[in-house]
Amino acid sequence: MDQLKIAAEIALSDCMAVKEGERVLIITDEPARKIGYVLWEAAKDLGAQAILTEIMTPKSNGEEPPEPVAELMKLVDVILIPTSKSLSHTDSRRAASKAGVRIATLPGITEDMMIRTLNADYKEIAKKSDKLAEIISQGSNVRITTEKGTDINLVVKGREGHSDTGLNHNPGDFSNLPAGEAYVAPMEGKSEGFIVFDGSMAGVGKLCGEVINVKVEEGFATEITGGAAGEKLYSIMEPFGKLAFNLAELGIGTHDKAQITGDVLEDEKAIGTVHIAFGDNKSMGGTIRVASHLDGVIMEPTVSVDGETIMEKGKFLIL
């Protein structure tokens, strides 16, 4: 059987637990059209009422889909969203989740990534992700350092850690596919320090030997440097105003088959990495709504929660 079709069947049956007769909506755009169609076929094969809709390619991560699509999203049981830009951090996705729809977004997914990362032990990924989310939820401060110069403190007291397990079996469940991270929205206005992104950055790609340096003061990126890569990141964020510079998310990767490819959907899940995002954090328990959410990956980090080291130079000490 075609490997892409097998991956689609895993997504529909194992990750989304699609049952015969359920209404399954696939939202795609032109760059992801083939993957959207394969997922639609897999939904049909499971006996679902499968619906395929193609939207125009969004201009940015977090841009809302057309209103008729947003309304349709609330009327089905399951949604998978393979698109070139992310619909994760949209009011439309949040409203559908609130209505009890099981949703997976697959922004920027490629055929190679889908074949490689969906054929994984998602129960083991879930176990790691859940444990890390619990540690973060019980913590007050997270400090991240690297040999390349990252040194930042994130205040997470009062914020719940979440696990992106890929197992969306209950009403309202939401994740990326591929999944594999624990994440949190640090308290707005509290993060302080310096970040050196050396893995990849959304909108920029894989940082092959380059780095992007970001100074963070009172929860906002106040200075971005690093040659062409830094300039490109700033140029993507700047049109959305100050809120796009909000430190929105800390995530810790838990997927053992994920690699650093330049596609942040996969990169941020790679075990042994952390990622920090700027922009919208409303989907993860924060208060900032802006049509931009950009993740950057940090390699070989040391991570401490309230002074206890849980990862040292990319190696877990607690899992």
Strand content: 25-35%
Q: How many strand units?
A: 20
Based on CA atoms alone, the radius of gyration comes out at: 18 Å
Q: List the uncertain runs.
A: none
Helix content: 25-40%
Distance between the termini: 35 Å
Descriptive account of the structure:
There is one protein chain. This protein is α+β, with helices and mostly antiparallel strands and 319 residues long. The strands form four sheets. An eight-stranded antiparallel β-sheet has the order 14-13-10-6-5-18-19-20, covered by helices on one side. It is built from eight helices and 20 strands. The model has no long low-confidence stretch (mean pLDDT 96).
Summarize this, please?
It is built from eight helices and 20 strands.
Feature tags:
319 residues; 2 domains; five-stranded parallel beta sheet; globular; eight-stranded antiparallel beta sheet; single chain; 25% helix; alpha+beta; Thermophilic metalloprotease-like
